[in-house]
Amino acid sequence: MTSKSAKQSSHERRKGEAALSDFAEYVEKQQALRYPSSKQVAATAAAGSTQGDLEHHEELDDILDSLDLSDPTPRVRLRELLLSSSGDADALQKLVDIISERLSEGHGETVFDVGFENNGESMRLSRDEWEVAMGRLAEAAKKLRADTQLLLTKNVGGDLDGAPTKDGDCSGKVMIRKAPATVEEVIETRIAVVGNVDAGKSSMLGVLVKGDLDDGRGKARVNLFRHKHEIETGRTSSVGMEIMGFDTTGQVVVSDTPGRKLSWEEIGKRSAKVITFTDLAGHERYLRTTVFGLLSSSPNYCLLMVAANNGLIGMSKEHLGIALALNVPVMVVITKIDICPPQILEQTITQITRVLKSPGARKIPIFIKNREECINTATQFVSQRICPIFQVSNVTGENLDLVRSFLNILPHHGRYDADAPFEFHVNDTFSVPHVGTVVSGIVKSGVIHAGDDVQIGPDSLGRFIQTSIRSIERKRIGVPAASAGQSASFALRRVRRKDVRKGMVVLPKSDGAPPKVYREFVAEVLILSHATTIKTKYQAMLHVGPVSQTCAIIDVDRPFIRTGDRATVAFRFVQRPEYLAPGDRLLFREGRTKGLGIVKSVGYDPSKPLMSKQSESGVGDEQQPSGHAAREKSDDKVARDMKIEA
């Protein structure tokens, strides 16, 4: 009996994994409609004006754009621009224009392939020509207030030289990063750090940010903790935030004094690129906090930490499942390799590879062991299929330089539209002396300036409070404005802290009707794991962005749903209405994660049930014989019992 149920559960698990992969692609398409980037908006408008029936392939469009098939005027070859004479101002200006275009595409940074044309053709550079090309590139970058950093070379010689190629041509990858004129222009990338308890998450962040190694007893993690009980137990229970800065030449911004940790203000002012780490709790007791942190911080990437001596155990799989469900690119770091026996490390690597290649994840694991692999993977990490894996030690410092190099090159990834109406999601509230009520969160779309009139809500009755923004801070530095994709904190006028909560939204002030809030909504959901069936009246904790509230199922498009099923479900918030929009991702759980989904429509009309009359009657007809058979079976049992008594 036991083996049969175990076999069934593994079959159901495989069914759930396969469904998860398909559902993730569907969610990504819906997200593109919810938060379209400006590039997508233009492409959609162009596609609509020509022919709406043609399927739109964005990747194919990018390839065709790079080939410039539509442009009748031939482009000047990059080789001619890079090897032009120092007095040729026209060629230099053309090179400056090309770099400027690439910098704007990469949000202030780009990786330039010296030695190859745009179409991938080799420039066949000799050693002397390589030196001339590098000098010309640096000269063009300086005109844009940008610095160059040589990442990798081929056939040039030196410490950065990778495996030589057969043709012997000189080539290399160069990072060009613009110096930000103001703090608002600093490139920001958000990374959520997840993993099981005791995987070394806080210790590794402490080592990366401070630059000093750990002593093996938790020295590096102490500065990251927010509460007294966290320091005593060594376990994170809250959502911790830590930042790491890189300057224009790709160096980590650290203090000149050993052991001293720079403040956020110092890092923000000296950096051209800032990585914001969200340190999440690994213990099962704090799963709600971890899920809230993952959904509310809108991470660009997810860093999964695995202890080499433990492997993927406990909450690691749960966290990985949530990251895959949110369609966030994942990278894995195996820690504690200095204390782990080789055969145990081999088992851990085999287990991680098996999980990443499973139908639910469908990732390609790439083990990064040297600088060349690190740089090639980082430049291609926009692909959702790649999953880089590092093996590090926080005590000996082994391979930590590869992690730093990887984070430095990591391309900016996300979907934001600064031209859309302003929308800000609150994920924390504070009361600051002499300032008043402060709310922090992510600007989902649009731009906001200090002094703008806004409204925040909804409260328990679904109403919005009119207020204005006193000041804006990013990374604890005052800024005049914040735009889409940035994390920021707003000080609000005439609002008490008890009137604001996590999960509220800040919207621009409107003279017309107030923003609509909804208690009921319809969503497309996928059940990941549930022991029995789910029907109407089922209640679970629902997470939609920063919103966490108990929800009840009021209607389903079939009699019941179980593990691996995709269904259209109507939910009702139990406590209060919330601000929602079609395309928002949701995740519901009852202890462990039960399912995930995406909002299809807001509001629900009871007169139009999701399940059609035919399917209801069909189900009733099907169920009748089984009930009749059950009655016959019970009658037989009664007769048999009577015979025994006689």
From TrEMBL:
InterPro entries: EF-Tu_GTPase, EFTu-like_2, GTPBP1-like, P-loop_NTPase, T_Tr_GTP-bd_dom, Transl_B-barrel_sf, Transl_elong_EF1A/Init_IF2_C
GO molecular function, one term: GTPase activity
Amino acid composition bias (Basic and acidic residues), ranges on this chain: 629-646
Domain of life: Eukaryota
Keywords, ordered alphabetically: GTP-binding, Nucleotide-binding
Disordered as annotated region, ranges: 603-646
Name of a matching Pfam family: GTP_EFTU_D2
Record's signal peptide: none
Residues annotated as domain Tr-type G: 186-417
Keyword Nucleotide-binding: yes
Xref: SUPFAM superfamilies: EF-Tu/eEF-1alpha/eIF2-gamma C-terminal domain, P-loop containing nucleoside triphosphate hydrolases, Translation proteins
Recorded family membership: Belongs to the TRAFAC class translation factor GTPase superfamily. Classic translation factor GTPase family. EF-Tu/EF-1A subfamily.
Descriptive protein name: Tr-type G domain-containing protein
Taxonomic lineage of the native organism: Eukaryota, Fungi, Dikarya, Ascomycota, Pezizomycotina
